[in-house]
Every structure is written in structure tokens, then in C-alpha cells.
Amino acid sequence: EVQLVESGGGLVQSGESLRLSCAASGLTFSRCAINWVRQAPERGLEWVSTIDSDGNAYYEETMKGRFTSSRDNAKNLVYLQIHSLKRGDTAIYYCMWGDIRGQGTQVTVSS
After folding, report:
1. Which of 5, 57, 96, 110 could bridge 51 with an S-S bond, Cβ 3.0-4.6 Å?
2. Is the pLDDT confidence value at 25 over 90?
């Protein structure tokens, strides 16, 4: 059974940074591209980033420069570093493999 578990969210002030983690199990992790998506209050899922099996990361256009995705294949972990957080980044962040996602981690940015 594939499981994805996100962590690292919290309540932060505008301008601060966070690093989210996604722990994966039940899949051949090193061969898998992992996506990050987010869902803000009363909005649909929004794609944030994809990191492929080679570690190449791709970002939604407006998030380039503030979001950095990386992976540690030895630990089956994917990270999403978010710099200069804005109130508009407030959302539940999920990692996904195919259509499978974890329970999410809440990021709340206060001004």
C-alpha cells in the first residue's frame, strides 16, 4: 500500500520560511516523480511543483524563485522549501504520486 505523509507545516509570519517534508512508502521511490499541490480555503487543488526521479524540479510559474523542491532517495523523502511566505500561501499542502495523496500539512501565514 502506497502511503504519503506530509509534515512541517505551521503558523508563520509573512516573510518567514518553511520546509515541508513528504515521507513515502510502498512504492519504488527512486523511480517516482512526486508532486506538491495545495488547497487554499474555498479553492480547488493548485499544482505547486513536480520533482522527477532525476531530481529535476518544475514549478508553477508564479511560484518560481520562492519554492524549492528536493528529494532524498535514501530516506524516501521529498522536501518543499518555501521562502518569503505570503498570506496567499495559506493552504493545506499535499504531496501526491499519481492520484494518491497524503493527509496534508497546514500552512498558515499571518501578516
Report:
1. 57
2. yes
